[in-house]
Each structure stands twice: as structure tokens, then as C-alpha cells.
Specification:
4-stranded antiparallel sheet; single chain; 5-stranded antiparallel sheet
Length: 157
């Protein structure tokens, strides 16, 4: 009887320690906090995120608004494509597409965003991530028969 009581006590202590190590505040690799936990009176400045295209033909600079990306609410992106020397690509929107998917679920957004150009930046709006989890944003640039892709991953809570 004493042996089983000790085992039970040890299991209870370990369980308490294990649960105490858990946190309900998750953080993703890019530092986004869970949606709804950012005070609305303290506006966060959106960082400029960067990604290289798969064949190094361009670099993507992207800013989300608002930051962090909210769950199940419209948001927008401003982005631009830079050449190897860091200068904006002078291309029309017909060569550029933007999409987003949840790779773990095999689906994307329910609404396709509209792209518009303004002073070297491209705005995509509206975007809506309707489920929590990891989302990937894809920006494709097509020149002739060659398409290059840059992508960024986001965790949305």
C-alpha cells in the first residue's frame, strides 16, 4: 500500500510540474502574439519582412496591416519586389500574383485579394485567414515562361 501511494504522489507532483510548464501564450518564430491579446491602445508598427525568391531572381519585402495578422478579420499587405541590387522591379501587375494557403490543411483563403500599385509598392486587400494555424503567403513573379516564388509563413491565433 505504501509503495502505490508513493507512486501516485510522484505522478501527481510530476503532472503538476508538467502542467505548470505549459503556457497559454504562444509565440511564433516571427514574434507575432496571439490575436486578441494585443492592447488596441498600443499600436504596433508592422515590421518589414523579407524573403528571397526560389531562384534568387527577386527579393520580397512585405508589411502586414494590422500587425499581428488577426484571425478571421480582413487585413491588407503592402509589398514590393526588389532586384539583386535592391532596386524595385519595374513591372506591371500582370506579372505578379499573390495567394495564401494552409499547407497542413491543404486549402487556402476563401476570397482572392485585389492587387493595386502605388509608388513602387503593391497593396493586396482584403485578405482573411479564417482558421488558426500556420499560413503561407506566396508571391509569384512571371517573366515569359519562367515563374519565381517567394513565400513567408505566419502563425495565426
Amino acid at each position: 500500500m505504501r509503495h502505490s501511494t508513493r507512486i501516485l504522489s510522484a505522478c501527481l507532483v510530476l503532472n503538476c510540474l508538467w502542467l505548470g510548464a505549459c503556457s497559454d501564450k504562444e509565440q511564433d518564430p516571427q514574434g507575432q502574439s496571439p490575436a486578441g491579446q494585443t492592447p488596441t491602445d498600443k499600436a504596433q508598427r508592422s515590421p518589414t519582412l523579407k524573403a528571397n525568391a526560389n531562384a534568387q531572381g527577386f527579393q520580397l519585402e512585405l508589411i502586414t496591416s494590422p500587425h499581428p495578422i488577426p484571425l478571421n478579420k480582413d487585413f491588407s499587405l503592402r509589398f514590393r519586389l526588389l532586384d539583386a541590387s535592391g532596386q524595385p522591379l519595374d513591372d506591371s501587375l500582370e506579372h505578379i500574383t499573390l495567394d495564401a494557403d494552409m499547407p497542413e490543411h491543404g486549402h487556402g483563403m476563401k476570397v482572392a485579394p485585389v492587387l493595386s500599385q502605388d509608388k513602387g509598392w503593391i497593396e493586396a486587400t482584403p485578405l482573411l485567414f479564417h482558421m488558426p494555424g500556420i499560413w503561407e503567403i506566396y508571391v509569384d513573379h512571371t517573366q515569359g515562361h519562367v515563374t519565381e516564388r517567394a513565400q513567408l509563413s505566419f502563425r495565426v491565433f
